[in-house]
Each structure stands twice: as structure tokens, then as C-alpha cells.
Amino acid sequence: GFLTIALIVGLAMVSSSLQGGAQDTEPNSTLRLVHASPDAPAVDVLLDGAPIAQNLEFGQATEFASIAPGDHTVAVVPAGSGADAELLSEDFSAGSSEVFTAVVAGLLNDLQIHVVQSNVDDLPDGESRLRVINVVPGVGDIDIAQVGGDTWFDNASEGDATDHRNAEAGTYDLEVRQDDSDLILTTASGLTVGAGNEYLLVVMGQQADESVQVLPLVVSVSTACDVVLGIGDNAENSCARIIHAAPDAPAVDIYIEDALVVEGLEFGSNTDFVAIPAGDGRSVKLVPTGGAIDEHIVDSGVGFESGRARDVVIGGSMDDLKVLNYDVDLSPLAPEQSRLRVIHLSPDAGDVDVYVSSDDALYDGVGFETITDEVVVNAGTYDVQLRAAGENEQLFNAEGVVIEAGYVYSVIAMGRVDTGTFGLQLAATPLEVREGAVATVESGTPQAEASEGETVTETTPTPLSEAGSADEEGTPTS
Fold first, then answer.
1. pTM reported for the whole predicted model
2. What is the phi/psi pair of residue 258, to 5°?
3. Residue 188: how many other CB atoms lie within 10 Å
């Protein structure tokens, strides 16, 4: 079926002034907590004096919480206590879009907090990256190897996180040994490594009571688009949404590799995402609705990359129709955030400056058929204004645009100024929201339950607003 792009305001030019103060668009980072002190009681964890996790017990890991860029202090107190009962604290600095895990480790009389930053850079197809942090008190260096196979990590010293190593997706049996020894401290059987993740293997417990265990924590780096969008589970596919943004063009039928994908797509509307076999230069043909395929008015070669989402946009003017191909970045963001970008597809509007709830332009001189870089914004309500480039002449103003968390928003300038149809439309695509997953593994020694601790939502200095409700299909309403 068709999914009409949500119209954020009417398509007439508006002259009212920009309302609302500026909102911070610097991306938040994320933090989760792990209790890995084998003899410590349940604890509460404070971030900058505010509780971020409560009643966290040994072997438990929280979900991710969103933290603003800047300097922070993580503190540990006995469960139910206040900041004045602090057991220990650790300072760290967060940038933008970074991922941290704070591991509470050591014995009760010598507690430590190790803050480990994840590597969420792009990964090769079909691979994940792994690293180890050894927090077994007094055990010394350890080695981690495949059972009956290669050593993956050598000389992992107590309290330190190793470098990363990549591994193909698959299921592995690992064993933890004392360094340069045949003494096996524990095994981790059936560790499933999925593609596109980072795994932090927390080796914890005590050697004396044979409680050494492995807690595998997962950070999603990239998930295939069809899984994120809920349209399949074949990582080799691409995902495509077709948007009709050419104001002079008629409704069209669209064929990809001569297979009919959609019928009667009109200006100002778009399809749902569909899975498309990946490949370079795949034929996309536009045919006036009801016409034969050999009556196509455009035949364009479009590349579809495996695992990636694309906006395939009909743009231009009637005498110069074209098919434009834009990538959609679905990689994970912190909770309460979305991505936003602008696509200029109005043939006669000229170059524009874009203002988003600020007196300073977010984008300068955006030209026809240009797509801007993406910015990360916090969920909230924004005013979006387009002005003629370098001038104060206001072309369009949209007040009260609701941006929900967990989406990529394409703000599309389309229509024509000379006919009074120029305006903005909003296309929203769900993306991954970073979650604190724990991988399944069977330990060869008694293992505490690795369940989720109770997480308390943190209030950060970054302005956030209530997001609007979503409809049953998960598409933001505006």
C-alpha cells in the first residue's frame, strides 16, 4: 500500500516570525552499568549526584541511559543510600554519540570503577568485534581461547580492557585460562556472535569459590535495514522507499528490473519500504500510470547496497525528470534522539538557508536536488524556516514540528513557488535505539543471573520535550 508523507503544515507561504528558543543539537552519548564485584552487596549508582540505577546486584547489567556531552562523575552507594554514603566514584568525559560501560569491580574493601568506551565504527559485512575486560580479583593475567582452537586474547591483565579483535558471525565455545597455563577458570559455551555488533566480555567472579564467569554485553553497531524496518531478515537485501517529489510530473507506475513495484504514485506521496535485492545499476523505470513498460519516461540506473536503506526520489521538472538516490542512516542513536536532514526538491525556489528553532542557520545555501548532512536532534518540538539564501526573505515557516525519538526525518522542500504549492513535507524512518543487550552464554562454573537492573531515567542538561504519539504502525504523527 501507499504511505502518504505527513504534511507538517499547509502548502501556502507563511509570514509569521520564528517562534521558540534554540535547542541543543549536539548528540548525547550513552552509558550502562555492570555490577561485577563478587562480594559487594546490591548498590545504587549515581551519575552527577542523580540515581541512574537502583538495587543493582552482582552479575546484573542495566540498559543504556542517555548522557549529555561533557564531564561526568559515576558514584556507587549501598542500595537505598544517598550520595553522602558514597563508596567510590570515578570521573570521565563523554563526547557526542559515544558509548560507555561502567564496570563496578574488585572486592568490597577495594572497589574500583572501570569506564570502558565502545568502538562503534563501521564493521566489515558479516563481522563483529570483541574485547575482554578482566575483573577477577587477584587472578592475574588471563587468556581466552576457542575450545580446541586459537587463542583470541592473550595476557588480559586484571582491570584492563583488551584491544578489539574481529570475528565472523557464528556460535563459539570459549574457555578462560590463567595466562600461560592449562588451568581453565571457566568456559563460555554457545556464545552467538551476530553480525554488526561489539561484544564486551566481562570476566568476573572469584577463583577461590570457582565462580568465575563471562558476561557478554552487546552494543549494536549496525543492523541490516530489513530487520530494523521489520520487512525481512535477509542481510543481503537493500531497502527502498520511493518518493514522488516532482511537481510537474503525473502519477507514475514504477518498475525495478522490469518488475512492477508500485502503481499510481502521485506527487507528494511515497511508498512503504520494501526489500530489494542488492546490486549496482539496477534499472528503475517510470511509466505514466496505466501505460506499458516500453512507454517509460525515465529509465535510470540505481545502486542498492546490501543492508542499507535508500530513499529513491522522483525529482526534477517535467522536461528533466530524474531518479535520485539517497542513503538513509539507520545506525543506533541514544534514547530520546533522532536524525534530521533536508532535501531540496523545489525546481524554482532557488538556494535556501534552513533555520531550526534558532536565529542561526542550521544549513546555508542548500541548492536544488541537494541533500544536507544529517544532524542529531533531541526529541521535541521545533520551528523550521526556509529563507532565500543569504537574505532575510522568508519562503516558508513551519511552527511546532514534532520530532519523536528513534527516527530519521527527511524534511523535503517540494512544490513550486510560482504556483503557490511550495512547502515542506516530512518522511520519517525508524532507526535503531541503542539498547543494553546481554548475549546468551552457558558458563562452565556456577553463574549469577545476568539480568537487567532497575534503571532510573536520567535528567540531563540537554533540553528534551515530550514526543508526540505514534500511530499503530509506528509512524510519527504530526
1. 0.77
2. 65, 10
3. 24
